[in-house]
Amino acid sequence: MNIFKRLFRIGQAEIHAAVDKMEDPIKMTEQGLRELATDLAEATEAYAKVKALAIRTENDQLQRQQDSRSYAEKAILIMQKAQAGHVDLVKAEDLAREALSLHKRYYVESEELGEQVNALQQSSREMLRNTEILKENMEKWEKELRTLKARVKVSKATEQVNKQLAHADNHGVIGMLERMKAKVEDQEALAKAYGEISRERNSRKEELDSLLKDDSVSIEKDLQAIKQKLGIS
Description:
Radius of gyration: 56 Å
Keywords: Coiled coil
Distance between the termini: 142 Å
Mean pLDDT: 80
Protein name: PspA/IM30 family protein
Organism: Pseudochryseolinea flava
Number of strands: 0
Family: Belongs to the PspA/Vipp/IM30 family.
CATH class of the largest domain: Mainly Alpha
C-alpha cells in the first residue's frame, strides 16, 4: 500500500519545485486527492478484511480452548469410569492418554491463535488510525483546495482588470478622450464667440437707432395734446 507515499506527494503539491516547473498546483492537488480517495477506499477495505480475520481467528481460538478443556474433562471421566470398574484400566489409560494428547494439542493451538489474534487486532487498530488520519487530512486538503480555487478566480479576475487598465491606452482610448475634450472645448469657445458677436451687433443697432431718432416729432405731439386739453385752437 502506498498511502504514505501519496501523503508525501499531496503534501508537496505547492512546493517551489512545482512552481519552477510551471506546473499547476490545483491540478496536482486534485490528482493527488483522487489518488488518495482510491487509497482510502482500499485502506478501508483492507481494514475490514483484517478486522474480519481477527474475529474469525478469535472464534477459532475460543473453539480450541473449549476443545482443550473438553478433552481434559474426558480424560478424567474415563479414569473415573475405570476406577468404578466400568472400563478396563489398560484401555482407559490408553483413551485417557489420547484425550490428554488432544487436550495439549488444542491448548497449544489456542495459544498460537491467541498470539495471532493480538497481532491482527494491533494491525487493525493501526490501520483504523491511519485511515482516520488520512480521512481527516483529505477533508482538510479538500477545504484548502476549494479556498485556493476561489482565490485563483479572484486573482485572475483582478489581474485581467488591472491588465486592461494598464494597457488601456494601447487602443488609443486616452488619446481619443483627449481629442474629444479638445474638440468640445473648441466648440464651446466657438459658440461663445458667436454669442458675443451677436450681442455686439444688437448693441450697435440700438446705438444707431438712438442716434437717428428725431425727438422733435414726439415733442410736437405732446404739445398738441396739451393744447387740446386747454381748448386752444
